[in-house]
Amino acid sequence: MEITMNVNGERWDISAAPADVLLDVLREKVGVKSPKIGCERGDCGSCTILLEGKTVRSCLVLAVEVDGQEITTVEGIGLEGLSRLQDLLLNNNAFQCGFCAPGIVLSATELLNNNPSPTRHDVQEALAGNLCRCTGYEPIIEAVLAAGSKAGAQ
Amino acid sequence: MTTTFPFEAETAEKDLQSVGTGAIRIDGLDKISGAAQFVDDIDFGPGLLHAAIVESPHAYARIVSIDTSKAEQASGVVRVVTGKDFPYKFGMYMEDRYIFAQDHVRFAGEQVAGVIARTHREAVQAAALIEVEYEVLEPLLDPKAAFADGADLIHPDLGNYTHVPWFFPTADTNIAHWRKIRKGDTARAFAEADFVLEDTYTVPRYAHCAIEPHVTVSKLDHADRLTVWTASQSPHTQRHLFAEALKPLGFTHQDVRVITPYIGGGFGGKAGVSMEIMGAAMATLVKGRPLKVRWTREQEFYNTYQRQGVVAELKVGVMNDGTITAVEHKLYWDAGAYVEYGANVVNAAGLSATGPYRVPNITNDSLCIYTNLPPGGPYRGFGYSEFHFGLESHMDRIAEAIGMDAVEFRKKNAIKEGDELSYGGHMNPSGLVEAIDKVAAAIEWGVDEESDNPNTVMGKGIACFWKAPAMPPNASSASFLKFNEDGSINISVSGMELGQGYLTVMAQIASEILTVPVNKIRVETPDTDRNPYEWQTVASHVTWSSGLAVEKAAVEARAKIFEVIHQAYGYEDDSLYLENETVRCSTDPDFAKPLREFVIDGIQTEEGTWRGGPIIASGKFMPEFTNANSDPETGQGGHPNVHYTVGACGVVLEIDKDTGRVWVRKAALAVDAGRAINPDLVKGQIVGGLVQGLATVLYEDMRFDEGGKMLNPNFTDYKIPTAFDIPDEIIPIIVEVPQPDGPFGARGVGEHTMIAAAPVIANAVYNALGTRIKSMPVTQEKIAMSLLEQRSL
Amino acid sequence: MVIAKEFEYQRPATLGEATRILAGHPGSARVLAGGTDLIAWLRDGAVAPDLVVDIKAIPDLHDLRIESDTLHIGGLVTFSDVIGSDVIAERAPLLAEMSETVGSTGIRNRATLAGNICSAVPSCDAAPVLLGYDTTVHLTGPGGDRTVDLNDWFLGPRRTARTDDEIVTHLTVEVPVHGGVYVKLMRYAGEDLAQAAVGIVAYPNDVYRVTFGAVAPVPFRSARIEETLRGRPLDDELIANVVAMVGDEISPITDIRATAAYRTRMTEVMLERGLRAARDRLNGEGPAYGERLI
After folding, report:
1. C207 and C156 belong to one structural domain
2. Do C144 and C196 fall into the same domain?
3. Does B716 contact C258 at a Cβ distance shorter than 8 Å?
4. C86 in any annotated domain
């Protein structure tokens, strides 16, 4: 099937079979590599993308479902320089292996877009679907809280 | 929550510029921006082939026949392979393992056949068409049953296997290795002890659960050069194992190239060679085409290394004053179907199963026992987490029985510099007592805490830990270093950035010596053609070993820099020093030559000729004081371990008396890093390792059915921590008793931070509820049902 | 796992078109809403339809509104929609409490309540709460529109009163004044499927609806417990009486997630804590919605 999607501000015309999953189509046909293949069941969150501004697990979406829709990945977040959140994550040495980082950045970005001053519990809730095996989450939570501490920030 | 740093590093030197600072990771921007490339992110073009693997549903069976005819005819299929195509054994420390199963399958999930196809979907569809007939045999799923006389032999040919000289298999049994420590006279010591406690502790298997699954892309080009892109902790060791395994096909090391970009977590699971051999081998049959083999999460669980299970029988004797006089520790390891790597876990544990204590009389046995379960292999902690569960639980019980405080008991027996080790060597400088004291203070040991919730009770626990790297005695590291025109540096090493911050630490070491800022130093990920040798990134040894190699390279570069200056300007080498990327001279304060002006171009003399040229350097390190000469019957006489890292952990728990739910309100963990090259990264290991350790004791729960098949190979039912599952407060404590032969005094900490988690929880649960749980995991269910039972008595 | 068996995909623009397509593929078509169940089942090979019918383009299925005491939850309303809804926060915060326990944000942004009750796994989260209200499922199919009382909806594990060619257009939920609680047994603080669940809605005059989930083939209300409670103010003795009935009312299994004995024991604890909390919340007190009781 022929579908169109807008990925990080750019229009893509793609051929995809109905059974082709969005995660695979993004990685192989659009060439966006930041959403990762971690479990293919929606359990780990490393495939997270923003679909029309909301986080979804792209491993549980068929490519044909997003015809005409807007997708943002972490490459699209940092197009004009790192976001304040990314800066804080970087400076807090929040990530280790980095495999979960794209998904976490998107989940935290969605949180801050909806709730500029989240509590610690809010942050944990927003990130609870993104598994990280390396960090124990603390430095990530600290950075997201710091990103939220000034209401109305980016 | 706060992560607090209440204790200053006592050996910090004021004039260090880079070492000892929390420098921002040099790979941080890559990871934050999505730029970081992992193996599956690399594009190989439209010619990329895909493999799907057929695996045995049975834990133990004879392969009667394999019919690949339908698969061969299926759409998109290029080639189908079975064990017949690669009848070769391979293995890290023992050659007991096959590329594809031969006559028998020995664990549920073992690879039996592979399909190479043009698309992933076609490979999977074709794989489903392969018909395998098995004669199902009775699997051995319990190490003691496999150890018993008369048990079926999982490897009947064990007596003929090639292995390292410091392994001791028993032919015609399932005992692949038996590490014995015999020291002093335990029989007499037990007879004379004032108190003896004997019990059994059980620890099941665990999964690494790195978020990135194993993946390889292999290509045999038309010049017969095999390149393997792989998510591996060990590119050079992988190259070695690929070359060895494929030697029958004519390969040697120069024909094999391994390239490893960033990896998405290792934890030991990506060390050695597990699934990677399939891709490397199959690629030789599709010359000119790259072939990807990517594991699903399910395969990641059951067909890569697992952490071995163990049944630990422990007997400890003490005097009334708390002195430990004897330890008898029998470890029956459920080591799995192939132990080529895992046997070293058994070995390492056997050498150190006394724990970090001074023990004069020891009878320890660590038995590597074949079972029909997935191959056990390296997992963060390498056997130490497994035996510390029982050991540190046991120590608490003894302390209580003789009326001694658990902290005082540990301090009294804590091993100190110079004390004799199980195998006859001597303990390195270390701050175990300091670690115990600081942890005890951080959780206010001795102060009972009350819960203000009528449904819950509070408890506190303490445990300590130690571990040494488990390596062959000649494990080595090497490094190249070069400058660029802008004064920046490239360092080339084959250690792996697993996430622990290795690249940054190497940069900090070089930065300290060469005064080039860390953000002007690139440390290149491995390519075995370009980067010099590193044994593996395991054992928590690369800060020490590779750090020494990088330090030497930096020192050599500095010497060459000073030599060029000397040749050009005549200043004596010993009057020169580096400051802010500039050469200065103590006898001529006005002299200041920026590095970037000459590190490529050299320096022009008055005659117009040039001196110098590109500054390049190298360094290598191999310990020259280790050997594996230990006596097979007593374990004495060798020097297998380079040094130990020690530490302690304490927790404050709140437990729901009805539901068994455990909240970790506070956790303090102290580790003696010798010198924290980057305290932020050490803190990262403390927090991350602690959370991973807590998960193994609180809710990770691997289950097998009676046929030996894993029942929960997914994150839905094998639970790893989420952002909700972390302690309310973690207090990381860095102790710094320098490692005399370490770079700036550093030693490794990566694995150590998870070792004490399991026993510290068991001890705190006992403190809170009076219930002693001797098997892992200590789940909500176990606690709730144990409490229910207590109430009904 | 890649989806091995391919299928066709259609995205109808109207309900009529959708039901006609479904009627034309009896037994071989699947409805796709949020996809968090269906795509996982396709990947596992647990289902292998010839056709997937995506209903997300159909208008009017996204409505979440209240008319007097009747909550209207459209067939495409997601768990995130419920959590973010002011109407829900004001009139039925229990639904938001339950919704927050389902998966994680990335799942909740797609997964629908209607889909949750159509998938009808025994640990279905929406059921123990929706059964505590007068809830009606509204369907449309080739034969026209019909309604099914939620009490008649669940027929067995993954089996409901819906026929293959029907689509859930919306749920109506009666939400007069009430307090409620959704207590879910999980293995840790992170996301999990229910190993046991208790949904309680407390109405004025000591009327309770008590529903058990994940401890029987279908979620179900305990008539016996509800009768025992009816009209009697809650006190320790009454609570103890109904807690003692739990073992006979439920039939949990032992599996890798939990043993039957533990599920039973925990259901007793959940019922006890839940009853007090539901009653307190009816009276405007008690733990805030969203606070875990176990």
Report:
1. no
2. no
3. no
4. yes
Residue B297's SS3 state is helix
Q: Is C188 on the interface with B (CB under 8 A)?
A: yes
Chain C contact for B789, CB < 8 A?
A: no
Record: fold of A84-148:
DNA polymerase; domain 1 (1.10.150)
Report pLDDT digits (tens) over B686-740.
999 999 999 999 999 999 999 999 999 999 999 999 999 999 999 999 999 999 9
- Residue B6 pLDDT greater than 60, yes or no: no
If one looks up domain B39-137+214-294 in CATH, what number appears?
3.90.1170.50
Residue A34, pLDDT score: 98
pLDDT of residue B9: 32
**What is the pTM assigned to this prediction?**
0.96
Structure-derived torsion over alpha carbons of residues B497, B501, B502, B505, reported in degrees to the nearest 10: 150
Q: Do the bridges between strand B730-735 and strand B662-672 make them parallel or antiparallel, or are there none, so unpaired?
A: parallel
Strands B195-203 and A69-72: unpaired
Of B392, B390, B435, nearest in space to B416 by CA: B435
Let me know if residue C59 belongs to a domain.
no
Out of A130-134, B10-14, B162-166, B337-341, pick the least confident: B10-14
Residues B362 and B398 sit within 8 Å (Cβ to Cβ)? no
Question: Which fold would CATH assign to domain B309-471+628-792?
Answer: Aldehyde Oxidoreductase; domain 4 (3.30.365)
- Calpha distance B715→B705 (Å, rounded): 18
The helix/strand/coil state of B192 is helix
Query: Residue B465's beta-bridge partner residues?
Result: B647
Q: What is the block-wise mean pLDDT of chain C (294 residues), using blocks of 10 residues? A: 96 96 94 98 96 96 97 98 98 98 98 98 97 98 95 97 95 98 97 97 98 98 98 98 98 97 98 98 97 95
> Which of A24, A52, A60 to mutate: most C Cβ within 10 Å?
A60
Instruction: Note whether residue C78 is domain-resident.
Output: yes
Model confidence at B14: pLDDT above 60: no
Q: Which of residues 720-749 of B touch A (CB under 8 A)?
A: 720-724, 726, 730
Strands A54-57 and A48-51: antiparallel
Read off the CATH number of the domain in which C21 is found.
Answer: 3.30.43
For residue A35, list chain B residues with Cβ-Cβ distance below 8 A: none
Nearest-neighbour CA in chain B from C100: distance (Å)? 13
| Cross-strand partners of C10 | C53
What residues in B contact C192, CB-CB < 8 Å?
719
What H or E segment, with its residue span, contains residue B394?
Answer: helix B384-401
Residues 6+ apart with CB under 8 A from B324: B316, B317, B318, B357, B358, B359, B413
- Please answer yes or no on whether B721 and C190 come within 8 Å at the CB atom: yes
- Residue in chain A closest to B715 (alpha carbons) equals A43
Query: Domain B28-36+475-621's class?
Result: alpha beta
Which chains lie within 8 Å of chain C at 3 or more CB pairs, if any?
A, B
Question: Tell me, what's the pLDDT at B771?
Answer: 93
Compute the nearest-CA separation of C6 from chain B (Å).
Answer: 9
Q: Per-residue pLDDT for A154 more than 60?
A: no
Tell me which residue range forms the domain holding C241: 179-282
Quote the pLDDT of residue A151. 43
**Look-up of token digits 């919340």:** C281
Q: What is the pLDDT of residues B319-341, one digit of tens each?
A: 999 999 999 999 999 999 999 99
pLDDT at A94: 97
Question: Under CATH, which number does the domain A2-73 receive?
Answer: 3.10.20.30
Q: What is the ipTM of this complex?
A: 0.97
SS3 B145: helix
Query: Worst-scoring range by mean pLDDT, A102-116, A137-151, B184-198, B444-458?
Result: A137-151
CB contact, 8 Å: C190 with chain A? yes
CATH number of the domain where residue C116 is located: 3.30.465.10
B28-36+475-621 matches B309-471+628-792 in fold:
yes
Cβ contact, residue pair C104, A128, below 8 Å:
yes
